[in-house]
Amino acid sequence: MIRIRGLHKSFGGLEVLKGIDLAVERGQVVCVIGPSGSGKSTLLRCVNLLEEPTSGSVTVGGAEVTDPDVDIDRVRRRIGMVFQAFNLFPHLTALENLTIAQRRVLRRDKAEAVRIGRDTLRRVGLTDKETAYPAQLSGGQQQRVAIARALAMDPDLMLFDEPTSALDPELVGDVLAVMRALADEGMTMLVVTHEMSFAREVADRVVFMDDGVIVEEGGPEQVVAAPRHPRTRAFLTRVLDPAAARVSEADGERPAGRP
Length: 259
Ligand SMILES: Nc1ncnc2c1ncn2[C@@H]1O[C@H](COP(=O)(O)OP(=O)(O)O)[C@@H](O)[C@H]1O
Ligand SMILES: [Mg+2]
Description:
Family: Belongs to the ABC transporter superfamily.
Bound molecules: adenosine-5'-diphosphate, magnesium ion
Number of helices: 10
Distance between the termini: 32 Å
Protein name: ABC-type polar-amino-acid transporter
Pfam family, one: ABC_tran
Strand order of the largest sheet: 6-7-8-3-9-10
Largest sheet: 6 strands, mixed
Oligomer: single chain
Keywords: Amino-acid transport, ATP-binding, Cell membrane, Membrane, Nucleotide-binding, Transport
Structural class: alpha/beta
Strand content: 15-25%
């Protein structure tokens, strides 16, 4: 579904992606983990050409998005994207947030857009919030509306960029539950996340990125539970037990080998 070969991306003199090769098969869930600034968002944004790669190729469902002749709007329509910030229209209700792109982009008539919108709100557990405005919803509910908005467009794959990072801890679970259900339904998903339990339980593969390269890649039982590379281990120690990582750094020890 996604095939990335030799992907490089620079911003001016700053090389952010330094040769990424990655494949996501149909129905797979691939989680990307790694420190802030390592290039995870840029990688995701290159998949739907929100950023233009400096070199290398990206194909999505067989269409080469890096081909100058590609109909990028057509490719983008098949890709749902969910960001850390929900980006809902504040002056529209939850249901209206779901119908607007269906009508404008997919040219669905109002009745169909509403039917699909309601159906999708049900899938994310928000049937009773149809008429609520974003300001009347919790962060977790807003993010579920954002996921529903993407799903209402019938995407072939979904990109998630730290979808739970802006949420209060007690609201994270509901969003992850929706994502887990999507994975169970067979959605192809590329997910940047710091939620290691999600990566461990849901991902088919986990990719650890650092400084613009993929350092380590494999099943979650390997990358998350028994990382081979010292940089992966150090990162996981920081993510899984920040207090302990600080203590061991203060002691001048290397971070513990296993998270
Ligand atoms: N549009 C941009 N212009 C200049 N630099 C950018 C831009 N987007 C990202 N960067 C830089 O690229 C690096 C990687 O950023 P990003 O992909 O957001 O990392 P991550 O998502 O892993 O935190 C950072 O140093 C960031 O400052
Ligand atoms: Mg990011």
